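Hi L.,

As promised, tRNA-specific 2-thiouridylase MnmA:
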Amino acid sequence: MRVLAAMSGGVDSAVAAARAVEAGHEVVGVHMALTRNRAATRSGARGCCSIEDAGDARWAAEILGIPFYVWDLSEEFEERVVADFLSEYRAGRTPNPCVRCNERVKFDVLLERGLALGFDAVVTGHYARLRGGAVAGRPGEANTLELHRAADAAKDQSYVLAVSGREGLSRALFPLGDAPSKAAVRAEAERRGLPVADKPDSYDICFVADGDTRGFLQRSLGAQEGNIVSPDGEVLGTHGGYFGFTVGQRKGLGLTRPAADGRPRYVIETRPRTNEVVVGPAELLRRTVVDGKDLVLLDSPDSLADGVGRQDVTVQVRAHGRPVPADVTVDAAAGTLHAVLRQPLRGLAAGQSVVVYGGDDGGRVLAQATVA
């Protein structure tokens, strides 16, 4: 099978490409250049598109003996990820740029170009497992494809992949899904002589060069002084823009006097229309109901309906968040999801991704939606 290996410059994608070569596939490596200003990108491997990453990816491809190319996807990344990130914060929501990048660039754009060039599938270093269905290189019906958690729960990325849906995932290969640990992947990279074996993991938002998300938002959207208020409307302080705060945030509020009862305050909500940030006690963050829109089904609506009240149905609202038992129903025609939580969640914000898990082991992805 002719496959396109997405090589970020990190150890995971390098080992994934190596495993694809070892499996007998005809592999071509490609590095996605996602930023328009390479000089502004952080160094030291903090982000996933740092200035040294293209060189590291090329070096790994040379060792593997595969062709290698750099594709400039900065325009697509700017339009589909960065612009969406700013638009969501402007609307008072909290987006997950990694979810959007996986959906709109690493799968949509890369796969679209790859298929146009005659490739059969895309190989990435994501930690997740695909079973059954029309998984690339394996027979089966597309409507039986299943996305499952990775063997290594600490590195599992099924949460960010769920938004890609069956169609996108049917042309994907995740060779690291069964890897027992990141340490094992690093050891394998060292055995293979790959130069990125000890490279640190990427973290933070890759297009926020200095890691200061609030500063990035204020520079991009403009400082807008407003009030920090209590739930009953008392003005407690000021801020430079509601978009610089997220629900559940405790630090960086800039308040000079404590609450009357001495308890810490948290961001309860942001109000774009009035440019207000509402803060209050932790109990106001508790949510027992989650509604989602833009539904992506990886299982049938009947299966989810049958799962109402079952203990093996859980929802997760952060990449490495705690799965919470829930009663879940979906409306496939309306593209909505409704979950009643058996345990309350704190700090749930509009714009986050909610993923539903079930199955015999609780690790199968059933659906994904955006918190409304």
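The domain at 287-371 is CATH 2.40.30.10 (Elongation Factor Tu (Ef-tu); domain 3).

Thanks again for sending the construct details.

K.
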